Amino acid sequence: MKTIFFGSGLFPLPIFQRLHKLIAIDPKVSLITVPNHSHKEKNQIKDYATQQQFKIYQPNLSDKSNNFVQEIQDKPDLGIVCNYGYMIPNHIIDIFNKGVYVIHPSLLPKYRGAAPIQRAIMNDEQKTGVSFIEISKNKFDAGAILLRKEIDILAVDRYKELSQKLSQLTADSIEEFINNIDKYERLSQNASETTKAPKITHDDLKVDFSNTANKIYNQYRGIYGTNFHSLKLKYQEREFYLENITLVNDLEIEHLKQFNTAENGTLWLIKNKQFKNYFYIKCNENSWIRVQEYRFTDRGSSQAAYTFKNQFMMDFKFDSLDNHYKLSY
């Protein structure tokens, strides 16, 4: 079956590789990927396709004058779309004999949009998955559902880890999907159950310490590992990323109780050798974030939290609320 894959970046790579292994993709046709916006931009699926000598197209599909359709001598059978990010015009969709199908990393109709994995984590969802749907003309992520695969979101899953799990889940399911395309019932999405997953912006990196630690931690989990890297804070005009943070345990809560009247968004230390390598951020409702690693935005590598303490908090008074280590956000 002559198949064309529309995709870009890392997420669809294991899926494309599995199709290659199954000989489901004809290397003479193969991959349609997004145009390069800069020479630094990573496109792992394109790199793999180049190494394997697949035919690669990077057309501007919105330009009706392009000769992409003419370059495909024989009509392809099947189109698979995953992490492509562009609306595919109707005249392109219509050339596929068996149709075009979209792989979307959420349990549709929940989390339609550009950032379904990130938004599911940030909203503290306990489950997510992948949906295999018919492409919807002139609208993203709205087609009939053929197959859904579900997965638990673990409390420690960040964007990178969950993205890898969902990508592998899809790769493990793609043969089943292709073999049964004609047998699946087409289930229309219930519009009343639709939720949105708008793309991540710089505003999503801002931390509001009037939120609880749990909400901020979920925000961190959803952002960390994306192109935006992580949550960004400022202390004494130095901007830094939160590289490795967690929620505190019961023993830490006991030690931190003495600072419960402190202002949200302030930094504190625990006078206990077990916790000497961390600093703590006060959040709403007397909740706390433990910082284990951070990175200044103008440096390339992460640093252990104790180096921040040694640089900025050497005069910290352990038995006093008279400390003035306040973050900007």
Low-confidence stretches: none
Helical segment tally? 9
| Total E-strand runs | 13
From the spread of the alpha carbons, the general shape counts as elongated
Arrangement of strands in the largest sheet? 3-2-1-4-5-6-7
Ends: how far apart? 53 Å
Which structural class should the secondary elements be placed in?
alpha/beta
Helix content: 10-25%
Order of helices and strands: EHEHEHEHEHEEHHEEHEEEEH
Radius of gyration: 24 Å
Q: What do the pLDDT scores average to?
A: 91
Give a short account of the largest sheet.
Answer: 7 strands, mixed
Strand content: 15-25%
Give the secondary structure arrangement, pairings included:
Blueprint: E1 3-7, H1 13-21, E2 30-32, H2 44-51, E3 56-57, H3 68-71, E4 78-82, H4 90-93, E5 100-104, H5 116-122, E6 127-134, E7 145-152, H6 159-179, H7 213-223, E8 232-235, E9 238-247, H8 250-256, E10 267-268, E11 279-283, E12 287-296, E13 303-304, H9 305-312
Parallel strand pairs: 1-2, 1-4, 2-3, 4-5
Antiparallel strand pairs: 5-6, 6-7, 8-9, 9-12, 10-11, 11-12, 12-13
Report on this model:
InterPro entries: Formyl_trans_C (IPR005793), Formyl_transf_N (IPR002376), Met-tRNA-FMT_N (IPR041711). This protein is of the alpha/beta class. Helices cover 24% and strands 21% of the residues. The chain contains 9 helices and 13 strands. The chain has helices at 13-21, 44-51, 68-71, 90-93, 116-122, 159-179, 213-223, 250-256, 305-312, and strands spanning 3-7, 30-32, 56-57, 78-82, 100-104, 127-134, 145-152, 232-235, 238-247, 267-268, 279-283, 287-296, 303-304. The strands form 2 sheets. Strands 3-2-1-4-5-6-7 form a 7-stranded mixed β-sheet. Strands 8, 9, 10, 11, 12 and 13 form a 6-stranded antiparallel β-sheet that branches. Helix 4 (90-93) links the parallel strand 4 (78-82) and strand 5. Helix 1 packs parallel to helix 6 and helix 5 packs antiparallel against helix 7 (213-223). The mean pLDDT is 91.
